[in-house]
Structure formats: C-alpha cells, structure tokens
Task: inverse folding
C-alpha cells in the first residue's frame, strides 16, 4: 500500500528497514577544493554505495516494504541504469525475480550490472512511452509489483536516508545539493533536510540541456520535456508527478549547468578526491565551479550520487 | 639526529608527531572482490592521504623531527614523484624551503603537485647517479637537510603509521600486503605489524620488471639494478641499504607480478571500488589476481599507496 505522502517519519522507517542492506557511505573533504570554492565542501560518497549509486537505498526500501504475497510475483521497473541494478540487487536479497525494462542505448556497464545481480532484462526503444508500454506488458504477464525509479513514495523515502546520514555526519550544513532527474533523490533529501533542520537550504542542480525541473519549478507547473541530450545520462528523464509537489514545497532553488562544467567538475573530482564519479554525479559541483550558486563562506554538502562509468569512454578523451 | 634502528616505539612517536598533519584514511571492502578472491580483502586508502599518497606520512615525520636550527636551512630530496610533493607540503607546513631534485621524465601531474606546494624543482637526468649528484650539490649550496625518500629511519617510521591505523581498524588481519620500491613503506609496515601482532604475515609485491627486492631477498644480499621498465613508476628504484636489513628480518615473502596484472588490477580497483589508484598502488592486488599468493579464506589487508595519475594517459587507453 503506498504511503499517502512523504514525511520524515517515512524516511526514518525506511532507514531502519534498509540499514543492514546498504553501506553507510563516508563523507570526504578536500582543502584544495575548499580553497578554490571559498567554502567548506562536504561530499557524501554514494558512489561507494551498493551497486555504485544511492539508488540502492530506494530500491531496497521498496522491495522490503512489500508483503510476502506481493513479493512472490517479483518486481519490475523501467530504468536507464542505476535503479535497474539496484532493484535487481534488492530483489535478489529478498529472493524474488526482478524484471527490468531498459532502453537499448543504456550504457553497457549498467546492463552488465543488472545481469550480474540476476535481473531479467527486457529491451525497449529509448523513449519514455516505449519504456512504459514495455513495462505495462511485463506487469500484466507476471503480476510483478512496479517499483518506479522515482515516482514512488517508497523509493523517495529510501533515497532520503542518504541525507539523514549526511546530516548526522555533518550536523551544521548551510546548504545541501543534489542533482535532479526524475526527482526521487531531491524529494527524499528535501523532506529529510527540512524535517531535521528547517533552516537548511536545499538546492537541486540540473544540466541546462535537460532543464525540465528548472522550468517546472520556475513556472509552478509540471513541464515535462523529451529526453535531454546531456552527458549526465542519469538526469535525462523529466520530473515525476508525485515528486513535483514535494519539490515545490521543500526545495529552495534549482540551478542549471553547462555540459562543459559537468565534464570539468567530474574530472576535478577524480583528480583531487581520487574517486570515480559518473557525469550525473558531478552536476552539483559543476554548479559551484560555474558560479551558479553563491557559496562563499558557507558549509555546503553535496551528495555524490554514483560512480558507474565506462572506463573505456571518458568524456575528456572524446571532446 | 638519525634514529639508530627502527622500532615500534619510533613509529608510535611518529604517529603522535604527525597525527594532526595527515588524514586517518578509510578502509574499504567489496563483496565482489571478496567473492572473486575467495578471501576477505581490506583496502587502506592512502590514495586519499594528503598529497594523494602515503608519502605524506614519512615526509611530515622527517620535517617535524628536525630541530629549529636544522629546519631553518630547509630540506632537500630527490624523488620520482609522491615523496617530492609530500616533502614540499611538509616543508610548507613548517614554513621552511624544500628543494626537490626530480628526473626530467617525472610525470607532469607530480611536477605540478610539487609546485603547488611551493617546492623548488631542480631537474636532472633520470638516473639514480644523476639524482644523487644534483642533490649533493643542492645540499652543499643551501645547507638543507636531506630527507631521502626511503633510506631514512624518520621516513620509514612515518610510513609505518599507516599500518598502525590499519591494524586498529581491522585488528585480526592474517596478511598485510604493500608494494615495494625503495623499501620505506615495507620497512615501516613490517616493524609495525610484527611489533603489534607477531603472527601477521607481511608480504611485499613488486613488478617482475623491477624485481631487485625479490632478488635481494632471495639471494640474502642487496642486489640493486638499473631503473626498471615498469608502468609502476613509483617502484622503479632499488632497495635502500638501511631498508634491506629490516626487510630481511621482518618480511615473510616478496612476490612479483606481470605488467598485464598491474594494469588489470588497477582497472578492477577503479571499476569496483570507485577509487583512483596509480599503477604502483595496484601491485599487491595484482599479486592476488595473478595467484602469486595463496589467500583463500584469509583476511588480507592491502595498503593502497597512492592515487596520482595523469587522467589523459590511462594504461588501458594505450595498450
């Protein structure tokens, strides 16, 4: 049964449910990056999370929220990547099947991850309509439960657990930043952040070339667009209908960044923090690099969302 | 005044001296890598250390061991890379000059790091003889104190602090593995490990193409060789005269690995652990991948020594 709305209590319950199924990821800092930004930056490393992305949280919460009767028929989703692997993993942990509808152009590394966790892949054309049609067919044929990658309160509650851990590790943040695609992470983060510390500013960052969240936020009504052409492949989707009202209520600002800044931010994080992050993950730091958000003298927390990249195809190798 | 020999007490004193000048680096694990190895692997992430390498420890201990009178004239060294940056940083922390003799073929990223910390670079030909001659000249001209990259008890004591932290974090290791080049890290690690837990096996890993430590260890006498032609640029040097007796006494085995295994190990660590490690750093894990050491069912600690790589020139891009 879906939760009626998303509250801090839901996020705390999710944390209790999934705590032993996820990593409590570390927070990294860098004197170099602080000096460059003129701010104190804290990086919550969800790239070290199970399946290499925060998506492990929401998927685990959804799968372990099911009743045994519901779970028996398995779970299904459509996803461009990390949620797919995360759902396959959560399903394996519970011993149930996972049916994953993926676009044919999903990165190879992410397809392999799904197979590695025992997920069953059904390919479709790379449009939202084709994905949803293929997914509906799977649901009809199998009786599986849909676990949408972001338009699902159970998923949002799970994603919000990263912010809870972050604020436990760094209690006095001034700003918390996350990338926004469908809106699952930012919904959970915003509810957790405002629930725990109402004065904390919540800022979402988005590629300018896939700026539906920015447009929706600015216009005050949902403005979905076609799949954006951005290197940040995890952020090409538009905001979910359940996510948008939460974002309107709890998010303070949405900023957009250029493709060049995303690549520069990704490379800077690799070089200085010595960690692997995927392009989508670098979008909030790109906003700082590009001066899209005043951060001077502030304590800024950035959730690094994932680290699944194809090491044979790095953006600075193919300008 | 140099320490007469290397003891656990020296390493503990070093830790007290440098604790507030270094990171206490995290230990990472991976269910994937454990399953592949049939062992429990623990990775101590010195790639996250200040200057991106464990060398920050030894350099800081040496610089902060100097009397004020000694320190006033500065410090000098010859180094192929990470020690150079580490000494420049430690000197800046103490407010004294650092003179760094570097081979002309040192990686660009490591030259920039030295300059970034205010070190003064003196270039020389890429031979040990040329480095030592250039360094001797600098010492004469400036009165600086030599801080050798490995043939120095203060440096060895500093490097040994990583093993102390590692054993505090994972008290029941069966094996601890480090790469060996000049022998500074392995000397400190071995004395710390055997001092704290005599039954712990200490294993050093070395590129087969720069295997002077293996040869020296096997023959029972120091067998220096010319600079090895290995991708592991931090391990091209031969064992130091002060390091060898410590290694003979405290190290249980030295294993060698192929260049192919080094690249495969580096890539595997990037892909699975989502962290940046340099080729030298991947050598112990390469030994596990290549089956050079029986580890089945054992708890194995690997010190990941550094993360300074040129992101424009990755080994799998240029086979």
Result:
């Amino acid at each position: 049964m879906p939760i009626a709305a998303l509250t801090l209590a839901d996020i705390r319950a999710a944390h209790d449910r999934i705590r032993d199924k996820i990593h409590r990821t570390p927070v990294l800092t860098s004197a170099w990056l602080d000096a460059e930004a003129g701010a104190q930056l804290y990086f919550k490393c969800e790239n070290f999370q199970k399946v290499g992305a925060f998506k492990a949280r929401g998927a685990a919460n959804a799968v372990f929220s099911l009743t045994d009767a519901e779970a028996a028929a398995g779970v299904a989703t459509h996803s461009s990547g990390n949620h797919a692997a995360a759902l396959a993993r959560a399903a394996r942990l519970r011993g149930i099947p996972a049916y994953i509808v993926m676009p044919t152009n999903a990165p190879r590394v992410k397809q392999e991850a799904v197979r590695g966790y025992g997920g069953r892949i059904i390919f479709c054309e790379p449009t939202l309509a084709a994905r949803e049609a293929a997914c509906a067919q799977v649901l009809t044929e199998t009786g599986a439960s849909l676990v949408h990658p972001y338009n699902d309160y159970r998923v949002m509650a799970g994603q919000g657990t990263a912010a809870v851990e972050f604020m436990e590790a760094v209690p006095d943040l001034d700003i918390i930043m996350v990338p926004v695609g469908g809106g699952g992470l930012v919904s959970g983060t915003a509810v957790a952040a405002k629930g725990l510390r109402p004065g904390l500013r919540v800022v979402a960052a988005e590629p300018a070339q896939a700026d539906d969240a920015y447009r929706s936020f600015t216009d005050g009504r949902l403005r979905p667009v076609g799949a954006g052409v951005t290197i940040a492949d995890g952020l090409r989707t538009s905001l979910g209908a359940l996510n948008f009202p939460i974002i309107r209520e709890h998010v303070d600002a949405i900023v957009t960044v250029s493709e060049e800044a995303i690549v520069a931010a990704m490379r800077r994080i690799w070089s200085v923090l010595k960690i692997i992050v995927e392009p989508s993950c670098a979008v909030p730091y790109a906003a700082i690099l590009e001066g899209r958000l005043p951060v001077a003298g502030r304590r800024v927390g950035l959730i690094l969302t994932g680290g699944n990249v194809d090491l044979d195809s790095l953006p600075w190798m193919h300008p």
Notes: Residues 56-146 of chain A form a domain with the Rossmann fold fold (CATH 3.40.50.1100). Chain A has a mean pLDDT of 94.
